[in-house]
Amino acid sequence: MYDACVLHPAPLRDLLLRLAQRRVVHARWTAQILDEVFASIAERRPDLSPERLSRTRQMMCDAIDDCLVSGYEGLADHLILPDAGDRHVVAAAIRCGAQAIVTANVRDFPADALAPLELVAVHPDAFVHDLIDLAPGLVVRVVQEQASALRSPPRSPAEVLDILAQCGLVRTVADLRLLFGIGG
Question: Quick one: which of 47, 128, 142, 158 is 20 to 30 A from 79 by CA?
Fold first, then answer.
């Protein structure tokens, strides 16, 4: 289950979706999570038209089979978390049988609340780092594809890694730099 905070930064969202397209993970989210993501993007980027944001949202859903989770709403009322606004994320994770919630806000999803539900909260850096351990060549290819897809402006894999480090993927980027043979 991807939390809104990991879908907000475009470079991180792109990486996570590309990894899901390769079926190394099954990415899931809800319409409510997407509402949060795109409301936040619209607030921070008033230069982006509602049509463009709507198109991006639809492209995300089209890119990943069975990504939207529904029917979780009744579960949220029974969950206890530090922030009641996060209950819907846990409820959706339960509904779809997710093993992990990928979030930059790990503290908002305490282990003692998630463990009985057989869930863990994982920072995106740890999440992608674990995927490197499972399939290093695949993650390298995904980053290469991500760099190749950028046209305005074009970016090298090293530049994409710099951007991902700014998104909080510090350990991941360190390992990818070694795999790419890039110093720095």
Answer: 128
CA dihedral 49, 54, 59, 60 (to 10 degrees): 110
> What string of DSSP letters covers 89-141?
HHHHHHHHT-SEEE-S-GGGS-HHHHGGGT-EEE-HHHHHHHHHHH-HHHHHH
Give the Cα separation of 124 and 130 in Å (integer).
10
CA 28 to chain centre: 9
Q: Is 151 helix (H, G, I), strand (E, B) or coil?
A: strand
Q: Where are the domains of the chain?
A: 4-122, 128-180
Whether residue 183 is predicted with pLDDT greater than 80 in this model: the reply is: no
| Amino acid residing at 12 | L
C-alpha–C-alpha distance, residues 21 and 164, integer Å: 19
What share of the chain has pLDDT > 70, as a percent?
Answer: 99
